[in-house]
Design goal:
Elements: H1 2-9, H2 13-42, H3 48-61, H4 63-66, H5 83-92, H6 114-126, H7 145-155, H8 157-160, E1 167-168, E2 174-175, H9 183-192, H10 207-222, H11 236-262
């Protein structure tokens, strides 16, 4: 009888495993929450530690071309006054650091983490006033797509194509396609004017109108051509050339075939 009681009071062998697993879940969750809070504190633009870390990263990776204090050298322009938006755009699209000299910086895999990019961007922002990284409500696609389409046709389509497919410029330069570009990067490009792009400040295009342009481009990204093959979205010239070469070519081939059969 005592032996039976002892058996009843014994812990199941899997209970220890379950307790260990539960402890790991709680420990991991607490660590993740702590890590998230720490990362957010480190990228606070008002934090001196963020600026100091950004300065270290900048001097280790960018100073060769831009100078230790971002004052510029013969190999790179001064970054004083370009703002956080310019640094965030160039670094988070992989354009900087440049892989090689050329007509314009090429997009390539990003070299830094999001945290490091923000740290360097806020360090650049601390050197002089300039455009800031846009707020979420300006880039989330919640504007007027119809107004954005009109503004895009007037200000942007001559280089980027009316559907944002991109286009060639002079001397090996080009306007990139916007078919996969994020709202943040579109906004930052408008306010900083990277490469050959002009600057559209708030006096040229208001923040609300920039939001509308982003809304239009997001609509184009999410709603592809309902007519089938887009031919690169290059417009009537490409479509007309396709009809002339393939359409008329097919008609001529059918005509020759019919003539040959009739003989």
């Amino acid at each position: 009888m005592n032996r039976s009681k002892r058996r009843t009071g014994r812990r199941h062998p899997l209970a220890t495993v379950a307790l260990l697993a539960l402890g790991l879940v709680f420990t991991g969750g607490a660590y993740a929450a702590f890590s998230t809070g720490t990362a957010q504190a480190e990228v606070d633009p008002t934090s001196q530690s963020t600026i100091e870390e950004g300065k270290k990263l900048f001097q280790a990776n960018c100073a060769t071309c831009h100078g230790l204090d971002a004052e510029g050298t013969d190999n790179g322009p001064s970054l004083i006054g370009v703002g956080a938006a310019a640094a965030d755009f160039q670094l988070s699209t992989g354009r900087m650091p440049m892989q090689m000299q050329g007509p314009q910086a090429q997009v390539k895999p990003v070299q830094f983490t999001d945290e490091q990019i923000k740290q360097m961007a806020y360090f650049i922002a601390s050197l002089g006033p300039g455009p800031d990284i846009p707020a979420d409500h300006l880039v989330n696609g919640g504007g007027d797509a119809a107004n954005g389409a009109e503004l895009f046709r007037i200000n942007c389509a001559m280089c980027h194509n009316v559907a944002g497919a991109g286009g060639a410029l002079t001397e090996g330069k080009f306007a990139p396609a916007l078919t996969e570009t994020s709202g943040v990067h579109i906004y930052e490009a408008m306010v900083t004017g990277p490469q050959n792009m002009p600057v559209f400040n708030d006096l040229n295009i208001t923040p609300e109108n920039k939001r509308d342009i982003i809304t239009y481009l997001k609509y184009v990204q999410d709603n592809r051509s309902p007519g089938g093959f887009e031919l690169g979205s290059l417009g009537p010239v490409a479509e007309g050339l396709f009809i002339w070469i393939f359409g008329l070519g097919a008609i001529v081939a059918v005509t020759v075939w019919i003539t040959a059969k009739s003989n």
